C-alpha cells in the first residue's frame, strides 16, 4: 500500500484549503469563519449529516458506509494561537496577533481530504464520525465536546487523531501504547510584603527575595522529591515584580507549568508546592498564596488500538517509516478527554525540518496532508472492511 492515488491527486486542492485556513486564523471557541468553511466543504463532498454548534463552533459530520457496523471517530482541531506571524510566506495570517502556529489548519485539511475520499468511495461498513474540534489551545474544547455527549449521541466506539511533528522525518509516523503525552497543570504564587525606598530595606518586607527563593526551590521537587524513573517537569515560566531602581516592591508574582503522567505524582507536586510557599513566606516575613490548577489529563493510547494504528500507518508509508513504540512526550493535548471515554490512539506525523510548533516563523508542510488523509481513510477501511 501507499498514499491513496485519488487523495494524492487532491494535493493542490488540499493546499488551497489549508492556506485559506492559514490566512484566516481564529482562536479557541470563536471560530465562525473556520467552521463555516469546513461545513461548506463537507456539504460539497456529499456527507450524510452535518451537525454544527457543538462546543459553540465544533462540528460532527457523519458518512454512512455500506452495511451495518460500528461508528469510528476521526478528530481534527481547528483553532489557532495568539501569536504575531513572522513566517514571511505568501499565505501568512491576515489577522494581526493570530496565526496557525501549531498546524491545526493542516490537521483540519487532512480530515477534510479523508472526508472527501470516504464520501466518494464508501468502501467500509458502519459509519464514520468526523470530529472538527475548537479550542484545543487552552480552552479544553475536547472536554466540552465529550461533556456535550458526542460519543453517545453519534455512537462513536473508538477515536483517532494526528498531530504534525516538525523536525521529524517527513511522512513518518510515531505512536506508542499507553501514555503518549503528559498531563498539564499550572501554578501561580502571589506574594505580598511591604514595599518602600530602595535605600531603606529595613523598613520593608521585600517580596523579591521570597520570589527568588520560591523560584529556586520549585525545580527541586523534581530532583529531590520525585522518584527518578517517574517522568516529571516543573518549570518556572514567569516572575513579575518591581517598577523602578529605587523602589523595593511590596508584591510579586511567579508562575509556571507542571507535566506528569501519574496522579500520585501530581498530588505530591501540589503538596510540596504548598509547603514550599508557606515555608518561604514564613522565612521572609511575607504573605504568599499558591493557586494550583489541574489542566488536561495525560493522553493515553489504548494499547491494542495504537498497535492497529501503527499497522495502518505502515500500509500507507511503509514499515520502516513507522515507530510503533516511540518515547512519550511532555507536551499536552486535549484529545486526552476523548481517549478517557473511548479506546483509540493518537499519532505524530513527521513534517520535516523547520521552525518548531508555537514559533512565529512556523508554517505547516502541505506535502504531508495527503499522507495524513490517506492514513485516516485506510484506518476506516481496515477497521470496518466490506465483505
Please render the helix and strand layout as text.
Blueprint: H1 5-8, H2 11-23, H3 32-45, E1 49-54, E2 58-64, E3 71-77, H4 104-121, E4 127-133, H5 141-147, H6 150-153, E5 156-166, E6 173-174, E7 178-181, E8 183-192, E9 196-197, H7 207-217, H8 220-225, E10 232-241, E11 247-248, E12 251-260, H9 263-284, E13 287-294, E14 299-301, H10 303-317, E15 322-323, H11 336-341, E16 344-352, H12 369-383
Parallel strand pairs: 3-4, 3-5, 5-16, 6-15
Antiparallel strand pairs: 1-2, 2-4, 6-16, 7-14, 8-12, 8-13, 9-11, 10-12
Helix pairs in contact: 2-4, 3-4, 4-12, 7-9, 10-12
Question: What would your notes on this structure say?
Answer:
This protein is of the alpha/beta class. It folds into two domains: 5-179 and 298-383, Zn peptidases (Aminopeptidase), CATH 3.40.630; 183-294, 2-Layer Sandwich (Alpha-Beta Plaits), CATH 3.30.70.360. Helix content is 35%, strand content 26%. The protein is built from twelve helices and 16 strands. It has an eight-stranded mixed sheet with strand order 1-2-4-3-5-16-6-15, with helices on both faces. The protein is elongated and about 80 Å long. The mean pLDDT is 97.
In short, what is this structure?
With 387 residues, the chain is an alpha/beta fold.
How many beta-strand segments? 16
Q: Examine the coordinates and then state which fold CATH places here, giving the name of the CATH topology of the largest domain.
A: Aminopeptidase
Query: Which structural class do the helices and strands define?
Result: alpha/beta
Mean pLDDT: 97
Largest sheet: 8 strands, mixed
Helix content: 25-40%
Order of SSEs, N→C? Answer: HHHEEEHEHHEEEEEHHEEEHEEHEHEH
Second rung of CATH, namely the architecture of the largest domain: 3-Layer(aba) Sandwich
**Global shape:** elongated
Proportion of residues in β-strands: 25-35%
Runs in which pLDDT lies below 50 for 5 or more consecutive residues are: none
Question: Which oligomeric state applies?
Answer: single chain
For the record, the count of structural domains works out to 2
Strand order of the largest sheet: 1-2-4-3-5-16-6-15
Number of helices: 12
Rg to the nearest angstrom? 24 Å
Ends: how far apart? 19 Å
The top level CATH class name of the largest domain: Alpha Beta
- CATH superfamily membership of the largest domain: Zn peptidases
Amino acid at each position: 500500500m501507499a498514499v491513496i492515488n485519488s487523495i494524492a491527486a487532491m494535493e493542490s486542492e488540499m493546499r488551497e484549503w489549508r492556506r485559506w485556513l492559514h490566512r484566516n486564523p481564529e482562536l479557541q471557541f470563536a471560530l465562525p469563519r473556520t467552521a463555516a468553511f469546513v461545513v461548506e466543504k463537507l456539504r460539497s463532498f456529499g456527507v450524510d449529516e452535518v451537525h454544527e454548534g457543538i462546543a459553540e463552533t465544533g462540528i460532527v459530520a457523519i458518512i454512512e458506509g455500506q452495511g451495518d457496523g460500528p461508528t469510528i471517530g476521526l478528530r481534527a482541531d481547528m483553532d489557532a494561537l495568539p501569536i504575531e506571524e513572522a513566517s514571511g510566506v505568501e499565505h501568512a495570517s491576515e489577522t494581526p496577533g493570530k496565526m496557525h502556529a501549531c498546524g491545526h489548519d493542516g490537521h483540519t485539511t487532512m480530515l477534510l481530504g479523508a472526508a472527501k475520499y470516504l464520501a466518494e468511495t464508501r468502501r467500509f461498513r458502519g459509519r464514520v464520525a468526523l470530529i472538527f474540534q475548537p479550542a484545543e489551545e487552552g480552552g479544553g474544547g475536547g472536554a466540552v465536546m465529550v461533556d456535550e455527549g458526542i460519543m453517545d449521541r453519534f455512537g462513536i466506539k473508538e477515536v483517532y487523531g494526528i498531530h504534525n511533528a516538525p523536525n521529524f522525518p517527513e511522512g513518518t509516523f510515531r505512536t506508542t501504547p499507553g501514555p503518549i503525552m503528559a498531563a498539564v497543570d499550572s501554578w501561580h504564587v502571589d506574594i505580598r510584603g511591604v514595599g518602600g525606598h530602595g535605600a531603606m530595606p529595613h523598613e520593608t518586607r521585600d517580596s523579591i527575595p521570597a520570589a527568588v527563593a520560591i523560584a529556586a526551590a520549585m525545580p527541586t521537587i523534581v530532583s529531590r522529591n520525585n522518584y527518578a524513573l517517574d517522568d516529571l517537569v516543573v518549570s518556572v515560566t514567569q516572575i513579575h515584580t518591581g517598577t523602578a531602581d529605587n523602589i523595593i516592591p511590596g508584591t510579586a508574582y511567579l508562575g509556571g507549568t507542571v507535566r506528569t503522567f501519574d496522579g500520585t505524582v501530581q498530588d505530591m507536586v501540589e503538596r510540596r508546592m504548598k509547603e514550599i510557599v508557606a515555608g518561604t513566606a514564613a522565612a521572609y516575613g511575607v504573605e504568599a498564596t499558591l493557586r494550583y490548577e489541574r489542566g488536561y489529563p495525560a493522553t493515553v493510547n489504548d494499547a491494542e488500538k495504537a498497535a492497529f494504528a501503527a499497522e495502518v500507518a505502515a500500509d500507507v508509508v511503509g514499515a520502516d517509516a513507522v515507530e510503533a513504540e516511540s518515547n512519550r512526550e511532555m507536551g499536552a493535548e486535549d484529545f486526552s478527554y476523548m481517549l478517557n471515554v473511548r479506546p483509540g490512539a493518537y499519532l505524530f506525523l513527521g513534517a520535516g525540518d523547520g521552525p518548531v510548533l508555537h514559533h512565529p516563523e512556523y508554517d505547516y508542510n502541505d506535502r504531508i496532508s495527503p499522507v495524513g488523509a490517506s492514513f485516516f481513510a485506510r484506518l476506516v477501511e481496515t477497521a470496518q472492511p466490506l465483505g
